[in-house]
From TrEMBL:
The chain crosses the membrane at residues 12-31, 43-65, 141-159, 179-203, 215-237, 249-276, 311-332, 353-380, 386-404, 430-449. Keywords: Membrane, Transmembrane, Transmembrane helix, Transport. This is Sodium-dependent transporter. NCBIfam families: Na_transp (NF037979). SUPFAM superfamilies: SNF-like (SSF161070). It comes from Kineobactrum salinum. It is found in: Membrane. It is a multi-pass membrane protein. It holds the Pfam family SNF. Coiled coil: none annotated.
Length: 450
């Protein structure tokens, strides 16, 4: 069964694919700008703690369910359910998961299209095509629609090739490129005037602020969302892991890579913001608060690049190329969630499933673009702020309360015969049973309660 549905060929291949799924636009621009708005180093400190105390245990829940079933989320949750009622709940949870993943991709494709357009816009500036550059960097329906479709075509092309030749092959190419580009940009930006001010904000914590309830809640959300948990992407990737692999080690490596890239991105974005401020570009609103994330990325940073002359144009090309790669490594995992379900539950060929589902998501993106002011923010909030935490809660309930503990241990022993004697097994079962659901409910309740 495993061979027929595909499997990652190596540990490195899985780590690159899973880290690519986790590392997206949220890591490169979401996390750094959240850190800048919430105490800098204080936010970073809390985030680092919570990434391993919350995100890692939930990630392990998805990976263990996925590898045990070697199937999509719907079938996997049905398989570990002890009775008809829980099978129905599991089916509903899996279906909602792939619907949410599809809607996330519908707005993600729009934002990723902006990244590609800005990258090409910087190239056009470099080649002295001023009119083309202006069109590529200005908000318009034609531009947004065209580049959304281009991004979806790239995502569909990769997913249609399957697990090894599509997901693993391209993740193994894109992730090293992303990391090298990010490090080179960090090194360059840190040499600029004003960068040290941003670095101090990022690295010198205000410990009193680190204990503020509001900051802790925001850091909880950032840690949870940074690993793309809740919609079944990691469950699907877990289903493609060999039974020989040590799951706790794999999950730890993925978490480590994801957190490291988010932290490195902070070394780029925060210093760059203060370089912009040094160069006369405003980064604070009249109220004294930091400008919103989209304003920072699409207004402040391009304005900074303009003040840097030719070097700024080159940096702009590399920066938005980096953002485009981050978006693509995440989008392929999102599309794989509904594709895997369609292939396994309805017997559709991979290429047909990818084209049809990719087309439907592109239609949803088009509807959002045609009603941008009404729908864009609504879809973002409904999927990332509300749906993902609740779905993550359900995965914790299934692993902590529904699936028998001895069966979980048996699954883990496949790749780690002595796992029951490790610190992981002494802590994780009760932690994912009690602590994680409670924390996720807190994350979910916070935006509802304002």
């Amino acid at each position: 069964m495993v061979a027929s549905r595909g499997e990652f060929s190596s540990r490195l291949g899985f780590i690159m694919a899973a880290a690519g799924s986790a590392v997206g636009l949220g890591n490169i621009w979401g996390f750094p700008t959240q850190a800048a708005s919430n105490g800098g180093a204080a936010f970073l400190l809390v985030y680092l703690v919570l990434a391993f105390t919350l995100a890692y245990p939930v990630l392990m829940a998805e990976l263990i369910i996925g590898r045990h079933a070697h199937a999509n989320a719907v079938r996997a949750l049905r398989l570990i359910s002890p009775n008809a009622l829980m099978r129905r709940v599991g089916t509903g949870t899996g279906i909602i998961g792939f619907i949410v993943a599809s809607f996330i991709l519908s707005f993600y494709a729009i934002v990723a299209g902006w990244m590609i357009a800005h990258c090409l816009g910087a190239l056009a500036t470099l080649l002295k095509f001023g009119a083309l550059s202006q069109w590529l960097t200005e908000f318009s329906l034609t531009r947004n629609l065209g580049f959304m479709l281009l991004f979806m075509a790239l995502t569909v092309g990769i997913i249609s090739e399957g697990v090894q030749q599509g997901i693993e092959r391209w993740s193994s190419r894109l992730m090293p490129t992303l990391l090298v580009s990010l490090i080179l940009l960090v090194i360059y930006v840190l040499t600029l005037d004003g960068a040290m001010a941003g670095l101090k904000v990022y690295l010198l914590p205000d410990f009193e602020r680190a204990l503020a309830p509001g900051l802790i809640i925001k850091a909880l959300g950032a840690a949870f969302f940074s690993l793309s948990l809740g919609v079944g992407t990691m469950l699907i990737y877990g289903s493609y892991i060999s039974d020989r692999e040590n799951l706790p080690v794999l999950g730890g490596l993925v978490t480590l890579v994801d957190v490291c890239i988010a932290v490195i991105a902070g070394f780029l974005v925060l210093p760059a913001m203060y370089v912009a401020l040094h160069n006369g570009v405003e980064i604070f609103a009249a109220s004294g608060e930091l400008l919103s994330e989209d304003t920072l990325i699409f207004t402040v940073l391009p304005a900074l690049f303009e003040t840097m002359g030719l070097a700024g144009v080159i940096v702009s090309v590399v920066f938005f190329f980096l953002m485009s790669i981050a978006a693509l490594t995440s989008s392929i995992s999102m599309l794989e969630v509904p594709v895997a379900y369609t292939i396994e539950e309805h017997g559709v060929s991979r290429k047909a499933a990818v084209v049809v589902i990719g087309g439907l998501i592109a239609v949803a993106s088009t509807v959002i673009l045609l009603n941008f002011d009404t729908l864009f923010g609504l879809v973002v909030a409904a999927t990332t702020r509300y749906s993902e935490p609740l779905l993550g809660f359900m995965f914790c309930i299934y692993v902590g309360w529904v699936w028998h503990r001895n069966k979980i241990l048996k699954e883990l022993r496949k790749g780690s015969p002595d796992v029951e004697h490790t610190l992981f097994w002494k802590i994780w079962p009760w932690y994912v049973r009690l602590v994680c659901p409670l924390i996720i409910l807190v994350i979910f309740a916070q935006p509802l309660l304002g």
